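This follows on from our talk about sequence and fold. I would like you to pick a protein and set down its sequence and fold. Go ahead and set the record down below:
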Amino acid sequence: MFKQMITKFSPYLHPFKKAILLNALLSIFYGLSSVLVTMYIGKAIDSMSQTNKHDLTRNIMMIVFLTFVSALSFYFLQRISQYIAYTSMKQVRKEAYHKLNNLPMNYFDTHSHGDTMNRFSTDLDYISEALLALFNQLFPSITIIIVALGIMLSLNVMLTGIVLLITLGMFGVNVAIVKKGQPYFNTQQQILGEMSGYINEQFNQLKTIKSYEYEETVIQQFQQMNESLQYTGQKAQFISSLTNPLSRFIDHIGYLLIGFVSGILILQFPLPLSLGILSSFIIYSGQFSKPLIELSSITTQLQTAVSSTKRINDLLNETEEKTGTQPMTDTFSPKGYVTFSHVYFSYQAENPLIEDFNLEVKPGQTVAIVGKTGAGKSTLVNLLMNFYPLDKGEITIDSIPITNLSNHELRQSFGMVLQETWLFQGTIWENLIFGNPNATKEHVIHACKEANIYYFIEQLPNGFQTLLGKSGVLLSEGQKQLFTIARTMISQPPMLILDEATSSIDTLTEQHIQTAFNKMMQGKTSFIIAHRLSTIKKADIILVMDKGKIIETGTHNDLLNKQNGAYSSLYHSQFSH
């Protein structure tokens, strides 16, 4: 079981070879001193029975000295074990976070956020605690077993055979219980991940749930998961908890057998088996079986860690998103000539979404994309940003396939205002210059005025240094979107993508924003996705999409004059009332 953990995490333990070697040496000191204490206890007992005060004093002094060595060795052993366990987990967290930032978007489409976060927190904690327990016990246990076995064999082979027989019994019981319980621990960790994802999802949608009075339904769904976790967890814990009492029961039977056989040997055969030797042997037998008993006491911890190891390993083995590797001779500064050539795409192979899509956008043109929900508008932009791989076809920027560009080169070429706004916890200034850290204050103020948010900032006590987030100012959805728009203006990207840019802003503010956008988009290739058709009247090209295909193309006036056209129907449905 622990071998599986060590094997999977051995690459992260390689940098700690010296620390592991020191851990092993300290374990030998600890193991030897512990076993030698037992030997001198036996000698002290014999000294007492022989009333030899000189030998008794010497044996007691050796016991005190060896006990001190044992305690000191174990102290440093624990410190080094903690260093190895927690520092190696630090590296795993680092690599896991790097992996998370390089995973393709379809990973997040198929894995809940809560489950992913559970792997970062709970699973890694379980593994670090298990590694700590192993390094604290593995090497000392091996040393004690070897030394104790050697001394027991030198004292009495028959009694040693009894101890080995009892130990094999304990080992067999532990192996059987672990095999029986491990599937339940795997299921338990899976349910915990699913539950974390479910809670995270419900928390994010709490307003919607309350608005539709959906509380009872989500409570029932959660209760079903909770009951499933209770059954699986209880089953796993019960099976695992059998190891310790059964191991101790078998161990106690061993003590009885040793006492019984020792009595027979003393009475029937003239063997040199003194009271001190017998006492030492009984203690040795306990030291020999103790590692297995201690292992059984942390079986639950180890089984949980093995399940967590599998979940972390699954994450680390996920395929990262592809990025172009063709080196660019100069810094990529696109003029904005974009083409989609015979593009095919589907989120699921059995449900094709975009088929044979073709589009040519000249530098500086504004392209508006409209259509019903599910028509493929946002998907088109996701493909342009290389968030998802194409099934077939090619997308180029300035005649360079986007698959030849690194994701950094590609994505820094676009400024995006997304449907879902994102502002991190920090000052307003830090949020605004996120895309352009070298922006001047004059440039930032100008962009904020154009986005109609500067007056709001001026009214705040600390202005641009005002904190946003839980510990600072809380913003409305409309204000968040205004800040996002200002940030995009400040970043000065060569091309723009505006996805539902003004969906949370009132009509008056929308007019101010649209004026600012028109200025910002001058000379830049821009893609606008909006349900409010009033925001795209000045677009050079309007694409009307349905089921992944362009069904109409033209300017606002051209499309509006088409009787019974799709764009005309959408427009009149919005403005007829």
Observations:
- The chain has a mean pLDDT of 79.
- The chain has two domains: 91-316, 338-575.
